[in-house]
Amino acid sequence: MMTSPAIFKDVDQIHARLFDHRPVIQGEINYFIKEFEEKRKNREIERLERGLDFTSESNVGLIPDCVHKMDEGLPKLSSQLTTCLAMCNLILEREEEEQKESWLKEQRAKRLEDWRHFMDNMCQRSAQLDREVKEESQKVLDYYKDIEEKLFSSTPKPSSPNRV
């Protein structure tokens, strides 16, 4: 059987292996330092210096030059854009007028077609009514002729004036 101090010693070793990350972290730190200082040497510093030089040149020469050129060019660009916008609006207005005219022509043609259809329909109805009126008139005439014939056939014929 193990004694208490031996158990404590084993537990301490297990705890150190599980939860003490100092040796691993120390190894990673040493690897990072070796990688950064020995292999890369001064590349990052040189890159940073070049970036700083470019930024300084831009601040001193490039940016003021760009601002000056923009001050000169922007009013001209603005006037050209205004002219372009006016021309685009004019083109749009013309297109809208053409579309409006074509729409009006289409509507006019549609109304003419509707009117022609309406007039054809009215002519057909009028002709039908004329036929019906003619038929009814003929029926009435036939009726009165028939009545007249019946009336003449049923009335006594006048006797001769000599017989009295």
Automatic annotation (TrEMBL):
Give the highest taxon in the source lineage: Eukaryota
InterPro entries xref list = Bloc1s5
Q: Which GO terms describe its cellular component?
A: BLOC-1 complex; transport vesicle
Q: Which PANTHER family match?
A: BIOGENESIS OF LYSOSOME-RELATED ORGANELLES COMPLEX 1 SUBUNIT 5 (PTHR31784)
Concerning its family, UniProt says: Belongs to the BLOC1S5 family.
> What name does this protein carry?
Biogenesis of lysosome-related organelles complex 1 subunit 5
Species this chain originates from:
Capitella teleta (Polychaete worm)
